[in-house]
Amino acid sequence: MVQAARQAGTAGRRAVFELFPRRLPQGRRYGVVAGVGRALDAIEDFRFDPATILALEGVVDADMLDWLASYRFSGDVWGYAEGEAYFPYSPLMVVEGTFAEAVLLETVLLSIYNHDSAIASAASRMTLAAAGRPCIEMGSRRTHEEAAVAAARAAYVAGFDASSNLAARARYGVPSTGTAAHSFTLLHDAEADAFRAQVQTLGVGTTLLVDTYDVAEAVRLAVEVAGTGLGAVRLDSGDLGEVAREVRAQLDDLGATSTRIVVTSDLDEHAIAALAAAPVDAYGVGTQLVTGSGHPTCGFVYKLVAREGDDGEMVSVAKRSTDKASIGGRKYALRRRSSSGVAEAEVIGIGAAPQDDGDDRALLVPLVEGGEVIGRATLDEARARHRSSLAELPRAVTQMSAGEAAIPTLHLEPR
Amino acid sequence: MVQAARQAGTAGRRAVFELFPRRLPQGRRYGVVAGVGRALDAIEDFRFDPATILALEGVVDADMLDWLASYRFSGDVWGYAEGEAYFPYSPLMVVEGTFAEAVLLETVLLSIYNHDSAIASAASRMTLAAAGRPCIEMGSRRTHEEAAVAAARAAYVAGFDASSNLAARARYGVPSTGTAAHSFTLLHDAEADAFRAQVQTLGVGTTLLVDTYDVAEAVRLAVEVAGTGLGAVRLDSGDLGEVAREVRAQLDDLGATSTRIVVTSDLDEHAIAALAAAPVDAYGVGTQLVTGSGHPTCGFVYKLVAREGDDGEMVSVAKRSTDKASIGGRKYALRRRSSSGVAEAEVIGIGAAPQDDGDDRALLVPLVEGGEVIGRATLDEARARHRSSLAELPRAVTQMSAGEAAIPTLHLEPR
């Protein structure tokens, strides 16, 4: 496309692309934006090194290879801050540059946003369902090895407390926490040997896995080995609520009243909610988190909404189609809020910013200016944004049942 | 775990781990193994470089860091060949080494197998449904940016013809093919300008996207610009079967009888099957492919099944649990076939290989010996394996409806 546009003389036209969802996943009341920080890294790093240029020989012509070799995004980007809630048609990212510069970013930006936001959207429902009990990300082995690192990061944005993924700790500072596998117990001649080895190395504050053989016997052994100061026990099978109640009673009887109970085993937001009344102290979540709990991608698209015409003026453009219509024109967005601070609508202006009624909040922040990243936020800022964004949404967002978007999306008439 | 086992003196015990599925995804009749080649790369490359060691300071102790710095897998691996069909409890990979060496590979091996096999399993059903018509992988932007490259590779193993992912071309030699986006048409002042620019650069053999505005008008323009030698047109919205029939009639009327029709738009195996009678020449598949068509992960697990005891003898081990039971002991597998070569059962021997009845096929091939990769296959060999493995399965595998596994899994008594 870029090569053809260059030959046609249109590649340098100013262009505005918009990254947005046409809808929320079926039944979801809100989504959560994640991947913004990774996308900014990707824009900064988007270069074609000599090896890549070599690999593209035969795909594009020599003139195009030269252009790619010196590629550097020099445009502007605005977007929703990481951790922000989103709704259908929220203009999550607005990219302005030449057509050639901006169109090349389509795939990487969509990949990052579609993946990371799918994980964060699921993670947010899980942390809501956990109602303050810590959630631990443990899904690395159920997704692509690099997606796993991004998933740990996105889950942390949406309120998870820690991850078992050490690369996420190294790259992004996501707190890490570990677990022992059944293989560790099975390696040893007796369960008590495994517990002793673990406590000797990691201290009594460690979490012992107690469901390899008989749970009650393992709990007895665990307290015998570690003492009543044992940090936690983990349950990974059976009726978790029922077993947790039995184990809590047993721990209390043994005097291990502050030993916590961590549960894992194909948890999702519904299973977490169902355990609300059980004596569970933390949830370890794997498969359902890293696969977006039924919605592994957000279906975001990246569409050209405005471009320069022959006369140098910007023109709104959109595909005309019955089932996949887009709305042309540069978008602006604010979250309309009541005087008491409750979100009421996602208001999208076309060609001009919607007017703030006094209690509203503008949603697009500058991310890149003239090719320079200016909107970087820390993960802790993203976590805080997630918390505050959720706090202002109507109470319906806490419902795990399927429903409509928590607030409507309103498009203002183009100005 | 490794640090604790090292301190307890058990880390050096010989261990046999098995990577296997407990079940097929709900309703699926078979699965397809993919990621073997990537897993072999990962085993070869599994080292802890100085930066990684630095990042692990504080996580493990200095002695453990020293051990990690010199880590190199020196054991043996057997597995199903890439492209092979699998069934519940198929022992897809058997890893033997010291506990410490083998347990460290768990996450990366599961990540690769769980992801790549999920994609290949979905892709295989799609290529079956396409019944010989080419399928093109176009889902990069709907999944994590690195998962996208692996997905393109896995789809190719399972019969896809090409991918739009150029990194998959560079890294793995997956044939690439492109498409123009609606943005390319919208960039230009008139649809005919966009078509002219594309044909001028890519020749009349290119594929023109004809549903940005009015399909009939675009088809007319496309043939006017490119001539009757136009390679193909692409449809990305509407009732694809109906529109394809109209476009075919129009192309034929215009004399463009050999111009092909490529369709895209949220296709899955069912949508592909439903278009069997429509004049469609190729399918471009995105979201549903890269998300495993409802099953984004295979749920493979990696379990310790045997390990050395105090006396140096190997002991079979397994978790005792009601809902997540494993079967201890080293596994061997063959596909039992009738005298006419039709697969009848997945036969799994525990501790010894099942006897070949004369028409059977052993399924485990040596992949790594003493740390050296010896079982590398080309992607074309994996594609051929996929075709021949499917060809010997009962005809039921071609049914897109939900059903049971195409063949039963039989465990022989341990010897």
From TrEMBL, chains A, B:
Organism listed in the record: Nocardioides oleivorans
The family this protein is said to belong to: Belongs to the NAPRTase family.
This protein's GO CC annotations: cytosol
Enzyme class: ligase
UniProt keyword annotations, A-Z: Glycosyltransferase, Ligase, Phosphoprotein, Pyridine nucleotide biosynthesis, Transferase
Catalytic activity: 5-phospho-alpha-D-ribose 1-diphosphate + nicotinate + ATP + H2O = nicotinate beta-D-ribonucleotide + ADP + phosphate + diphosphate
A Gene Ontology molecular function term of the record: glycosyltransferase activity
Domain Nicotinate/nicotinamide phosphoribosyltransferase: 136-321
PANTHER family linked: NICOTINATE PHOSPHORIBOSYLTRANSFERASE, NICOTINATE PHOSPHORIBOSYLTRANSFERASE PNCB1
Domain Nicotinate phosphoribosyltransferase N-terminal: 1-113
Modification(s) after translation: Transiently phosphorylated on a His residue during the reaction cycle. Phosphorylation strongly increases the affinity for substrates and increases the rate of nicotinate D-ribonucleotide production. Dephosphorylation regenerates the low-affinity form of the enzyme, leading to product release.
Cited function: Catalyzes the first step in the biosynthesis of NAD from nicotinic acid, the ATP-dependent synthesis of beta-nicotinate D-ribonucleotide from nicotinate and 5-phospho-D-ribose 1-phosphate.
Name recorded for this polypeptide: Nicotinate phosphoribosyltransferase
Signal sequence region: none
InterPro entries tied to this protein: Aldolase_TIM, N/Namide_PRibTrfase, NAPRTase_N, Nic_PRibTrfase-Fam, Nic_PRibTrfase_pncB, Nicotinate_pribotase-like_C
Highest taxon of source: Bacteria
Upper taxonomic lineage: Bacteria, Bacillati, Actinomycetota, Actinomycetes, Propionibacteriales
Entry's EC annotation: 6.3.4.21
NCBIfam families referenced in this protein's UniProt entry, alphabetically: NAPRTase_put (TIGR01513), PRK09243.1-5 (NF006698), PRK12484.1 (NF009131)
